[in-house]
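Q: What residues go here?
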């Protein structure tokens, strides 16, 4: 098992690799790579879709209006950004904030899976459709799944996935903010729930491209890497 220092160094190495990435055409249009930021030892991780214009300029995820809503909802449950790790499915901004393309997700997803493996959070809040569908390896949408936690195997670790609406979507639909508030209110209790030991479970990933296996359906900030 790697020490915290080794994991942090591995995460930094991964960030340097991502910043030099030219796997897809987004390398030609980005301003900078938005790798992710927060506590590399966090028990709670948020995963969104892709950087927006402000994130692309600053290299930090969720710093616009959606980020302010995320911070507000975290504050309401007694947490702050420094307590969690925040990342996106794509590390580069798609032009004009269009949806990520399947080929871009395929090329970029290994960075996200490596982040999850290194950080090993207890709970991952998938924000919106793209991260939810990717990590569940299933096309079911966020409207049906939000607020429904389930335990999966990712990167060799048991982790509880908890789909919630993307803050950007809630900005355009005020009623969705109250739904998000109710879903966020469950986070402290979910963090306290036990997780099964993957070594004691007979688990297999259903796809070699996405290491995820459903096994349950229960009702020190270090800055930007």
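A:
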């Amino acid at each position: 098992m790697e020490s915290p220092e080794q994991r942090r160094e591995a995460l930094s190495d991964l960030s340097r690799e991502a910043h030099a990435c030219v796997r897809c055409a987004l390398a030609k249009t980005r301003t900078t790579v938005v790798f992710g930021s927060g506590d590399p030892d966090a028990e709670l991780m948020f995963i969104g879709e892709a950087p927006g214009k402000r994130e692309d300029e600053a290299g930090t995820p969720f710093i616009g209006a959606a980020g302010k809503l995320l911070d507000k909802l975290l504050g309401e449950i007694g947490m702050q950004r420094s307590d969690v790790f925040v990342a996106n499915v794509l590390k580069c901004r798609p032009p004009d904030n269009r949806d990520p393309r399947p080929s871009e997700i395929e090329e970029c997803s290994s960075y996200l899976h490596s982040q999850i493996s290194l950080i090993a959070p207890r709970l991952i809040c998938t924000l919106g459709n793209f991260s939810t569908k990717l990590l569940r390896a299933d096309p079911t949408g966020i409207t049906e799944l939000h607020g429904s936690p389930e335990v999966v195997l990712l990167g060799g670790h048991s982790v509880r996935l908890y789909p919630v609406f993307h803050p950007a979507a809630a900005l355009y639909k005020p009623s969705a903010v109250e739904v998000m508030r109710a879903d966020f209110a469950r986070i402290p209790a979910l963090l306290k729930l036990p997780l099964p030991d993957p070594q004691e479970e007979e688990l297999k990933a259903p796809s070699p491209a996405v290491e995820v296996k459903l096994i349950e359906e229960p009702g020190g900030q270090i800055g930007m890497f």
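A: Context that may help when evaluating the design: The chain has ten helices and seven strands. The first helix runs from residue 4 to 19.
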